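Intended use. Records such as the TetR/AcrR family transcriptional regulator entry shown here are meant for training and evaluating sequence-to-structure methods. They are not intended to support clinical decisions.
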Amino acid sequence: MTEQDRARVPRGEARDRIVAAATELFGRYGYEATTTRQIVEAAQVTKGAMYHWFSSKEELLTSIYRELLAEQTGRLQAISAGPGPADVRLHLAVTDLFAHMDDHAEALTVWARSMHLVAGEHASAVRAERRRYQHLFQDLVEEGQKTGAFRDDVLATVVTNTFLSGIVQIYRWFSPDGPLTRRELGEQMVALFLDGVRSSAE
């Protein structure tokens, strides 16, 4: 593709190409080893298109994760506000979280491996959005504790942070060549988590 052809790529399509190329390259070579030039060439867009959408490689990495986190938060918000008792909605929430993670495994693994390299305003923005997700999750746990569906001898903050911290670490030990698929792993972790929070009176 010539430079002239690259310049003709529609803006929205150019952004999608950049995100897809960056995700693939970050996953293959690592965030630090990947250059903006490699991303531009793989995406077949101009450097101007790259910097139109993203001011830096760091912003590009952060944007990929923030968009996925926004999706997760929106889905959790819809489930939390939906019908049914808290234990049913929490089951839906954690099952949906693993399904979303499975659908976007490459991008989320890239973020988990690279997030320690992000600082400043980008890191602050991610922390703020993660807190929003955590608060929604914790509210659901607290609701279940108040109704007696969940054990109340462990603080909802402990339940929430223990579970979500464990999710973040999956990339460190999970192998696609292992005995479980990501979906099967999700099913086992959901069962383990729900058994751990369920009230003994249930």
